[in-house]
Amino acid sequence: MVRPGAKHKGDLATASESCEQVISYNLRRKIMPKFTYSAAKGILQESGSGFFVTGAPMIENQQSLTAAAGSTTIGTDTDALTAYGATTITAANTASQSGTLGDGSYVGQMKYFFFDLPVGTGACTITVTSAASGNGTLLLNADNDMCSLVWTGAVWKIIVDSNTIAS
Predict the structure, then answer these.
(1) Higher pLDDT among residues 54 and 163, named by residue
(2) Do 79 and 35 share a structural domain?
């Protein structure tokens, strides 16, 4: 292991210098190699810094939620509504269902909702925790309703919707 502040690769850490100290030092100095993933070559390590993906799609989370029979809440403690990716909500009964969308993690984060109403009637109300003015509640109440939102760093803003009622 190379000692922090070493001028040569051969200047190794002593037994008294822990691995954690060396790693901590290197992280503070932001010594991180550049990683590039390509579909043709896999993961390549190069000089520089960052993580890049070329020639391959980045696929966000695909989530499917259905309210349990007799329940009005979509998702559970182990399968909660995520604040990223696409969520398809299937109406399993005629009762209104509800869920809560938490804050995003980074500016530009996208969230997509799709509503599947196989038979009969049903609706899903999504409470948006941090919403742009007038968009705190989303109501999906017809088959194939959908809504796309983007996180601004402070609030979710609707960018596309189809039959979704925002209030």
Answers:
(1) 54
(2) no
